[in-house]
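User: Structure please.
Assistant: Input sequence and predicted structure:
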Amino acid sequence: MVRRSRFWFFYALAWLPYAASYTIVFIAPGGNRLIPALADTLYNIVPAALLGAVVIRLCWRLPWSLHYRWWFFPIHLGFAILYASLWCVAVLLLGMGARLLEQGRLVFILFGGYALQWQLFSGLMIYGTLVSIGYVLQVARSLNEAENLQAQAETRAARAEASQTRAELEGLRAQLNPHFLFNTLNSLMALIRYDPAAAEEAFERFVALLRYTLEAKRNGQPLLGTDDTSLADEWQFAEHYLALEKLRLASRLQIKVDLEDDTLNCTLPSFTLQPLIENAIKHSISPRAHGGTISIVSHLEGANKLYLEISDDGPGAPPESLRKSTGLGMSVVQRRLETRYDGRAEFRVETSPGNGFRVMLGIPQDGIFPQSREEL
């Protein structure tokens, strides 16, 4: 309602320059004819504006569409002629009414040949201007509404994707407990009997691992406002996890680490490394009697992208088998990177029979290099 009222207010204001031009035209020939010129202006502008309001409403009732062009333009041509004709009649009737008030008698007025042509032509031009403005506003409003709907749809899709990813992340975090908690506790109980000092160190690692999980669950570092963390903290968590897994696998689990110093303060989403390492242990190390080796490598390309590589020397698999995999770890990490970095992150997996798995991540750095939790 307010929007319509504002529109009609500006519609009325838009006629003022047109009325001023009419006044100047009417006052010019006679010199001192201001009052008659204003009267003549009102006789012409008021009916044009009132009939124009009907034209605007016609545009609302007859929306712009090229699908109806075969009858759309003929209809408007007919209404344009009707508008110009009604305007001419209205101007003559108002002029006759004014003469009746002034002289007390009815005087018929008719346009001369040139004046009639000009009046009809002006009526057609006014109609065309009103229709053009009406449809331009209509198309602009439609485009704006379409953009708003698209933006809302994209926002809803992004929220849905983020919610799905967060739910999967919660499942991934919860998976840490039942997946390896039982084996770890069994290993710790056995270690207490034979090597209490080593058991104490293992318990400390276990507590640190659980603390990191709880902190990440509370949205990571408060300074970032997200669940981002530094590579140093993420690696420390993964290192605790590997140390506890080594209690179970012993020499069957070999680890090679090459993390460049300038990458340790780079940021990445928490729980990025551990699921990939766990995936390698589960599929490439544990099933084999002689175990295998996991390699973790990092380097910084330029100043704005962290590259991580997690690989193993396991049996590998045909590349097409990745599409059929139902594993949660890698898929959640991939979706989180896509959502968090809006498609700017890289995630690639290379494998083939006999050549193990190799997962490569490229994580954009947006100038946020937090200190580790121990330094905060």
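The first helix runs from residue 2 to 27.
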